[in-house]
Amino acid sequence: MSKELEGDTVRRDLVGWRVLITGASRGIGRKLSLQAAKAGARVLATGRDNNALLELAAEATRNNGECQTLPGDITNAVFRSELLAFAEDKMGGLDGLVNNAGQGTWNHVRGGDEATFRSIMETNFFAPIELIRAAVPMLRHGRTPAILNVSSRCGRCALPSWSEYSASKAALVGMTESLRTEFARFDIDVLLALPGKTATDFLDNCARIEGKADLKFSDGMPPARVASVLLGALRKGTRESWIGSDARWMLLIRRFFPGIVRRLLARKVRQLYATT
Prior knowledge:
CATH architecture: 3-Layer(aba) Sandwich
Helix content: 40-55%
Shape: globular
Number of strands: 8
Number of helices: 8
CATH topology: Rossmann fold
Low-confidence stretches: none
Radius of gyration: 18 Å
Number of domains: 1
Mean pLDDT: 89
Order of helices and strands: EEHEHEHEHEHEHEHH
Strand order of the largest sheet: 1-8-7-6-5-2-3-4
Structural class: alpha/beta
Strand content: 5-15%
């Protein structure tokens, strides 16, 4: 269900590897935190739901893993500073950072508003970039350090009604590719993941839910499967991972036949909005 591109020969030992994972309250971030802890990593998980984080830490402990938690909003600069100070104090620093937290909005641009779009950009782009900027001094002293940015297939193939979300994820893709070469002098791997549809409550947590397509997120990949690919990418230093058959076929077709994807999507939009 995954396609890994441009893999390096890195074999990263995750035992004792100190990693901060955002968006860990649920979904992919929660599963990745559990899998990383089970693999021997020292996990610091953050998200907005403190009760969910406490349950996550308890489950990791039952499985003989280490998972510390700190709840908060990563769009808040003060909290980001507190988060990194916590990592320094409790874990002695960081070796890895996984920017997984994200928020969507499912609506056409014409029906959107500036405040919502800016909120999406804050969560999906500005917060991870500022967290990276603040974490670099710590990561430079880490063991086989790596940054993994979890974008979306929408970051390379924008979808209608996901325009603002796609824009935020495309911005993260562009920054990731730039940082990959910038941070080479620090020996920090900068990795990118582009998951397809995943069976999470992502749609329920969108800022706007106004699209017409029947998305059926329940038919998506299990979050644990996505987390497993992410964990493998960290181990192997895979620079870009396409995760899920839907992501793979869409990105492959777009790469070689971009006009086909554009025409199919435009046709679908015309059908859905034929009476409006």
